[in-house]
């Protein structure tokens, strides 16, 4: 009788430990997924900012080149 009670206690403790371990693993997995999504969002924002800066730089350079070409052409036509 005492041996059966002891084995039953071991089984209950083992069962509790398994359920705690499962919850712990699920929690770690969710945390890892959140970190992954956070890193991906950060990278996406960085790439978006870089693309925007390149777009603005391209527009400014295009405007400068067109302005210079326009004034040189005007100088040649009137000069």
Number of helical segments?
Answer: 1
Q: Roughly how much helix do the residues carry, as a percent range?
A: over 70%
Assign an overall shape. Answer: rod-shaped
Largest sheet: none
Indicate the topology.
Blueprint: H1 2-78
Summarize the model shown.
The protein is 97% helix and 0% strand.
Description:
97% of the residues lie in helices and 0% in strands. The chain contains 1 helix and no strands. It is rod-shaped. The chain starts with a helix and ends with a helix.
Fill in the keyword field for this structure.
single chain; 79 residues; mainly alpha; 1 helix; rod-shaped
């Amino acid at each position: 009788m005492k041996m059966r009670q002891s084995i039953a206690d071991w089984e209950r403790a083992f069962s509790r430990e398994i359920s705690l371990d499962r919850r712990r693993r699920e929690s770690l997995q969710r945390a890892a997924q959140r970190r992954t999504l956070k890193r991906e969002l950060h990278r996406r924002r960085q790439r978006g900012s870089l693309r925007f800066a390149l777009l603005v730089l391209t527009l400014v350079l295009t405007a400068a080149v067109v302005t210079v070409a326009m004034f040189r052409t005007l100088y040649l036509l009137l000069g």
